[in-house]
Amino acid sequence: MNLSGEVALITGAAQGLGRAIAMAYVRSGCRVVVADINAAGASDVAVQIDASGERAAAVPLDVSDADSCRQAVQATLQRFGKLSVLVNCAVFAKYGPLADIRPGTVDRMLAVGLKGPLLLSQAAAEPMRLAGGGVIINISSVVALTGIAYSSAYACIKGGLDAMTRALAVELGPVGIRVNSLAPSAIPSAMSNANLDANGWEERRRRTALGRIGSQDDVAAAALFLASPEAAFLTGVVLPVDGGFSIAGMVPGVDLAEVGRTRD
């Protein structure tokens, strides 16, 4: 898949999935702007991707601030002359029992995970329209597709993000802007490793139809596809990148006949 000539603004790209997507895009010929509230980390990633600065640049970005979002879009336009693809990957997530949820934590999760993508989509839509079209990709999660305990606040955010994806796809489709979501399962990263121990990862693996944990490269490949001409007729889609985790009715490999005999 070839993104030569395209320019992408990727949020939360100083680490994790955002960084992996930025690297995949540059390998496909795209120029990228690495955006993150961690300005030093964003600069480091941009240099790692392309020290010459011809294909990668960094901008500081607080996605919860409308002015910061507009400035990031303008910086992209000034640096590379256009904006073809917006990837909303920035996230702030906390897991835990319902009783432990704190209002301040929820406010921050909503500001980063839901308000941010809306503000950035708003800032990016007009330059994309003027250029004849573009692509917006929202990084959602399987928590919006299937019930997972201790993720109620996070599920609210990602479920709202998927609803926003569908609404924007209808609104922006007539001006040539496609809007889709990717819904990964748990992918090894600093954030997920802080929430899952070895037993937790093994449980996720056992409940995944393909029998393995996904990688950041798996998600980056899907993000590359959605940005590419090969996905030109896809919009309003929530695409699971989860190895079958969200559709598995029970742990794969369970012998139902044996279960029945045991019950008898």
TrEMBL record:
<keyword id="KW-0560">Oxidoreductase</keyword>
<dbReference type="InterPro" id="IPR036291">
    <property type="entry name" value="NAD(P)-bd_dom_sf"/>
</dbReference>
<dbReference type="GO" id="GO:0016491">
    <property type="term" value="F:oxidoreductase activity"/>
</dbReference>
<protein>
    <submittedName>
        <fullName>SDR family oxidoreductase</fullName>
    </submittedName>
</protein>
<dbReference type="Pfam" id="PF13561">
    <property type="entry name" value="adh_short_C2"/>
</dbReference>
<feature type="domain" description="Ketoreductase">
    <location>
        <begin position="6"/>
        <end position="204"/>
    </location>
</feature>
<dbReference type="InterPro" id="IPR057326">
    <property type="entry name" value="KR_dom"/>
</dbReference>
<comment type="similarity">
    <text>Belongs to the short-chain dehydrogenases/reductases (SDR) family.</text>
</comment>
<dbReference type="InterPro" id="IPR002347">
    <property type="entry name" value="SDR_fam"/>
</dbReference>
